[in-house]
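Lecture notes, part 5. Sequence design as translation. It can be helpful to think of inverse folding as translation between two languages: the language of shapes and the language of residues. The source text, in structure tokens, appears below.
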């Protein structure tokens, strides 16, 4: 499936609020191809030339539901200084999380959300996620922190029909948490 700004559904579409279904393993050829395309989209969207040429919106992650496909599949690519964190996960679930929060200083964004929704989105600073990783072709447990942890939580939220702005305090959108890690 060729993914671009026309194939990504927006938050005005009620499909985005549906719960995604578990995916049967081993992956069917169709599911594997979809997840490979999702991962490729995220990678290509981070390359300025390719993104401009193909009209791709920059992203660090995407969930299958954003393509109107209610399956528990996400792809995340987070470049940080000397390392790039990549995961193409099937049936991901958070199995542990830190008490400490983290948030992006300037708030979050989403491929499916065009309108501005300013505010801090509090998430766990550190998490462990279990799922089948297409890249490693096996069940994995990923320990994530910082921006990678935030991106994973954002995409996993999509699988439950939750959008990032659902987590912004409407009374005090820019409230801070002195204990939280600010990214």
């Amino acid at each position: 499936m060729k993914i671009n700004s026309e194939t990504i559904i927006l938050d005005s579409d009620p499909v985005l609020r549906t719960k995604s279904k578990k995916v049967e393993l081993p992956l069917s050829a169709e599911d594997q191809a979809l997840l490979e395309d999702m991962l490729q989209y995220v990678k290509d969207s981070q390359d300025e030339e390719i993104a401009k040429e193909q009209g791709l919106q920059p992203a660090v992650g995407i969930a299958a539901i954003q393509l109107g496909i209610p399956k528990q599949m996400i792809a995340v690519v987070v470049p940080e200084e000397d390392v790039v964190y990549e995961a193409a996960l099937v049936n991901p679930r958070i199995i542990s999380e830190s008490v400490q929060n983290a948030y992006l200083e300037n708030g979050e964004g989403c491929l499916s959300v065009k309108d501005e929704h300013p505010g801090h989105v509090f998430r766990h600073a550190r998490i462990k996620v279990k799922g089948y990783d297409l890249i490693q072709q096996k069940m994995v447990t990923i320990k994530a922190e910082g921006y990678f942890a935030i991106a994973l939580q954002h995409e996993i939220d999509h699988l439950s029909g939750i959008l990032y702005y659902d987590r912004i305090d409407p009374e005090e959108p820019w409230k801070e948490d002195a204990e939280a890690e600010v990214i």
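The translated text above is only one of many valid answers, since several sequences can fold into similar shapes. The longest strand covers residues 83-97.
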